[in-house]
Design a protein that fits this description.
Three copies of one chain form a homotrimer.
Chain A (H helix, E strand, L loop, with lengths): L3 E3 L3 E2 L8 E3 L3 E3 L2 E2 L4 E2 L4 E2 L4 E2 L4 E2 L4 E2 L4 E2 L4 E2 L4 E2 L18 E2 L4 E2 L4 E2 L4 E2 L4 E2 L4 E2 L8 E4 L3 E5 L2
Parallel strand pairs in A: 2-4, 3-6, 4-7, 5-8, 6-9, 7-10, 8-11, 9-12, 11-14, 12-15, 13-16, 14-17, 15-18, 16-19, 18-20
Chain lengths: 152, 152, 152
């Protein structure tokens, strides 16, 4: 058996002025403001609305239904989720997209869980799993520490 | 000096009926059942055997020798490992691929360590580092919490 | 409005002998020694200097200004950062690239924070957030554990 190919690229998406988008992305049915940057291997799914001067760094995923304000920085490898219990073949799952404000900075490899609101001007540390709402102007890091098994 | 190019794509792989595979993937010497979905920028390595109705979301990596059952969901950016101490140039390393059952759901950005078995119908939370076996029907999340450094 | 395209690939980069580079990468203004391997969907930014026999596995990001020694293994999905408080539009930010020694092994999905030094022959566990210096010959893992919410 052979397989069918899913063609990636930019489809049914609206960009404001002066956006720069890498040539290897998967973006569909989304809306961007002005002066956005979208790095390589970024996926932006349907019904996403993004403001102006937003940077989506390489390897990041913006899931269906999310909104992001203006002047927000999404680091490399940031993953976002909109389903609490994703199951194959589920028809009636509740879509709970995260919502990210303006002036936010999200560090690389952070994970943003379903339904979370991240307030304006917050800073999320790299590698942090964001499991509840973050009030505006907060600085949040992961509680996870380094554990040394062997050290000279 | 110039460099040699590694050509990515789909090579020496068997698909069942009705699989949908993104156009930017790296899959070699693997076997898939029917009705699988493989998103963009997914790598599936040699000797991987995957059942039917499995979804591999974007940016995920299924390492050499793994098996995955039927109806399993692998989230975005999930990484799997088969070597406890990967070293450059090592010839005789032990390949310990994880094994993932059927009906499993693995959240985005989770990391699955070498040799781990994940039982049927388990749910692994996003961002979780899975370092030991997960019995069937379990729900597992990361112990890591958010730590607020500044809050209004 | 339409958008401008950022063309990815290999640009203004020097390779030693016998390097193997995947056909879907984004590498610019970097320097590599001999016998390196660079997997698919890897980004290596400007002013990076990498030794010989280094492996950069798929989905990894080596940020601007980093140095990596010889014989070092960078796992899949490893993200590195060089800015403590990344902000959109910031002009005068301090670039604090991590520095990784020789013979190091970094597990998949690890995150390396700005300014961190990782000493020779250290091993960093998969999924670990490396927030401070790692002396040579260390073995470091994440303190984060699995938390079982439901178990049979």
């Amino acid at each position: 058996m052979t397989h069918k190919k899913l063609i990636t690229g930019v489809r049914d998406t609206s960009f404001g002025e002066n956006c720069l988008v890498a040539d290897s992305v998967n973006i569909y049915e989304a809306t961007f403001g002005n002066d956005c940057f979208i790095g390589p291997w970024v996926e932006v799914q349907a019904r996403v609305v993004i403001g102006s001067r937003v940077r989506l760094q390489s390897h990041s995923l913006i899931c269906e239904g999310m909104t992001i304000g203006d002047d927000t920085f999404i680091g490399h490898g940031v993953m976002t989720a909109n389903s609490k219990y994703p199951k194959v073949g589920l028809k009636d799952w509740e879509c709970l997209p995260p919502k990210i404000g303006s002036g936010v900075s999200i560090g690389s490899n952070a994970t943003i869980l379903p339904g979370v609101n991240i307030g304006d001007n917050s800073v999320i540390g790299a590698g942090c799993v964001v499991s509840k709402d973050v009030p505006k102007n907060s600085v949040v890091v992961s509680s996870s520490r380094m554990r040394f098994l062997e050290e000279q």
